[in-house]
Structure formats: C-alpha cells, structure tokens
Amino acid sequence: MAIETIKWVKGTARMIDQTKLPTKLEYINCRDVKRMWSAIKRLEVRGAPAIGVAGAFGVLLGVQKFKGTDRPAFLKLLHQTCDYLSTSRPTAVNLFHMIEEMRSVALNNSEADVKTLKTQLFDKAMTIFQEDRQVCRRMGDHGAVLIKNGMRALTVCNAGALATVDYGTALGVFYSAKTKGRKFSVYSCETRPLLQGARLTCWELTREKIDTTLICDNMAATLMAQGKVDIIFAGADRIAANGDTANKIGTYMLAVLAKYHKVPFYIVAPKSTFDLKITSGKQIPIEERKSEEVTGFGGVTTAPKGVKVYNPAFDVTPASLISGIVTEYGIIKSPNVRNIKSTLK
Ligand code: MRU
C-alpha cells in the first residue's frame, strides 16, 4: 500500500491530515503532545487502530524532551502524558490500550534509569506500529475468503489504510481479495456528518483501483431491497465481551437493514479493539461531538442558526445482528462471550 497514514520520522509523528482529503494530500508533523492531542480530537488522525498508534507516539512526544536522570520526575511526566492523551476521544478502546501498553513499560521496569526507559518506550511504540501493519494484513486474508467473484459489498465510514498505519481492517479485506484476483465491487456510504466514507474510503478505494460507488447513507435500504448488496463489512471502535460493537454512527442502522434483507453483516477488527472488561455494549462510552459538525460542512451552513443538534459519533450494534467478527486469529461466527474468549485467548 502506498498510503502511509502515520509514521515516526526523526522525533516527530508524521501523519496524513485527514481533514484535507480528498482534495489535498497534506501531512502534519506533530512535535509535541499537545499537537497530537488536538490532531486526535480534530480527526486529523482518526480510526480506532490509527489513534491507538497516535496515542503511543503521543506518549513518546510527551516524554522525549525530558532532560536529566531524575526517575520519579520522569515517571510523573509519563503518567501526566498518558492521562492527558486519554482525554482526547472516549470511544475507540485502541487508544487506551496502546497508552496503557506504553505506561506499563515503566510500571514493569522498577529498576530502569531514565535513559533505559526512554529507549524501552521508543521500542514499544515501534512494536505497536509494526504490529498494526501485520495484524491488518492477517485480518484481510481471513476476511477475503468471504468475498466471491461478482459480489457487491457495502461499507461505512473509513476502516481502511487511513484508519490504521497503512492497510485497514474492513477495507483490508478488499485489498486482500483483490490481490487474490477476486472480482467484486464496493458501495461506500458517505457517512454523515463528517463524510469519512465519501472523502476517505472513496479516495483510497479508487486509488487502489477497486470498483467503488458512493451512496448517501439513506440509500442503503433501497439498495438492499433491490438485492444489490451481497455482504457488508464495517470496522469497530470498541467490542464488548459479548460481541456488541461500537462503530461509526449509522452502522447499527445498516445491521438492522441487513438482518431484514438477509445480507451477511461482518465486523473486521483486531484484538486491540476488544474491551473484554465490559460485558455489553451498554457500557461503551459514546462520544458526542459539537453541533457545528451537523449544521454545516466545509464552511457552508446547512441548518438554521441556533437549532438544537444531537451528534453522537458512534452507535452500538448488538452481537445478535453480527454474522461474524473477522480478527487476526480468524473469523468469530455468531459472536458471543464464549467464542470471543476462546478465539482471542
Ligand atoms: O470518528 P472516526 O472517523 O474516528 O470513526 C472511525 C470509525 O468509526 C471506524 O469505522 C473505526 O474506527 C474502525 S477503523 C479501522
């Protein structure tokens, strides 16, 4: 894949500015943790696995300029940095998992001096980065078996290279299927309000020469009623122990439609997106974003000033509506507490 969403380059986190796509491919160079916090908040970097890596890189940015050998002072800064980054967005659990992996480097090394801790933190962040690349390719290969020649798939939001380091979860399934020579096409829901489907998914799928058709979100039911959708793939931001899955707002609506129209509905997500500490989707914190995202776009006002707005960024699809979850360990069919636990081990 030629898309490098996030990368560590000489002490800075270099990331595609996703707010500028599809019209401009620009990069931002994050040099400090505050800039990383706002990049996550503003969705310059977005998508659960990508913000997990961004979180790990953010920790590096927060501690790398620490001078001296005072270990307690260094640990204090590390904890402050981790806590601060954890306030950027609430739903994608990858962010919290990766920040905690970074924090645990220090917690597990009670003897290490500051220099050693810095090296270990750097190594951990690079491992997190590389693992994302490998895990996405494994998920893609597992999911590709579901795609048969002639299929018309549908996806929502962007669960592609732009939502990970460089390959994607749901879109990774398409990339792998294409490599295996399968012929298929994809409908991309535009994904109001921030249009991740129209702006990002269509951008990357067309770049990768995958037959792609953009639809407005409210066209999905008609398309399914017309028998034009054979399979649905979506990503995830947090999956509870019972398989209930939070993903971009609108995913639940597609899952309900899929059940009614008997279309298989798959989630594609790595182990790092599971939150096995929570028993059901009811416990998933859902981010609410500012009203301006709904009342206008790109500087154009689309609603009367002062109108009340409800803008949850995610919804929860109950496990009962999910045909399977494609993970790096294989496909968990009809997900439930037991088969999720035994697959993820
Ligand atoms: O608000 P966003 O753009 O960060 O939401 C992203 C999604 O909902 C994705 O579908 C999800 O993170 C899976 S990405 C592989």
Question: What does this protein structure show overall?
Answer:
The chain is an alpha/beta fold and 345 residues long. It has 2 domains: 132 residues, Up-down Bundle (Four Helix Bundle (Hemerythrin (Met), subunit A)), CATH 1.20.120; 199 residues, Rossmann fold (3-Layer(aba) Sandwich). The strands form 4 sheets. It has a 7-stranded mixed β-sheet with strand order 6-5-4-7-10-15-16, with helices on both faces. It has a 4-stranded mixed β-sheet with strand order 11-8-9-14, with helices on one face. Strands 1-2-3 form a 3-stranded antiparallel β-sheet, with helices on one face. Strand 4, helix 6 and strand 5 form a beta-alpha-beta unit. Helix 1 packs antiparallel against helix 2, helix 2 runs antiparallel to helix 3 and helix 2 packs antiparallel against helix 5. The longest helix is centred in the middle third of the chain and has 31 residues. The protein is globular, with a radius of gyration of 20 Å. The model has no long low-confidence stretch (mean pLDDT 97).
